[in-house]
Amino acid sequence: MLHDKSGLEHLSQLFTGRGINHLVVSPGSRNAPVVNTLCKNAAMKCFTVVDERSAAFFALGMAQQLKRPVAVCCTSGSAVLNYAPAIAEAYYQRIPLIVLTADRPEAWIDQGDGQTIRQHNVYGPFIKKSVTLPQHLTGKDDIWYYDRLISEALNAAVHPVAGPVHINLPFAEPLYSYETSGTRPEKDIEITELQTVVPNNVLIRLAQNWNSSEKVMILAGQMPPDPLLNELLQNISRFSNTIVLTETTSNLNGDNFVGCIDRSMSAMKKEDMQQYQPGLLITFGNAVVSKRIKSFLRKSPSLQHWHIDPAKHHPDTYQHLSQSIQMPVTTFLKQIVHSLNPAESNYARLWHSTAEKASELHQSFLTDTPWSDLKIFDTTLQYLPETYDIQLGNSTVVRYAQLFGWKKGFRFDSNRGTSGIDGCTSTASGASLASGRPTLLITGDLAFFYDSNALWNKHLPANLRIIVINNGGGGIFRFLEGPDQTGLLEDFYEASHNLSAVKVAEAYGIKTFVAHSEEQLKSILPAFFDMNTGSPAILEIISPAIISAQTLRNYFKRLAN
Question: For residue 324, what are the domain limits?
Answer without folding.
Answer: 200-353
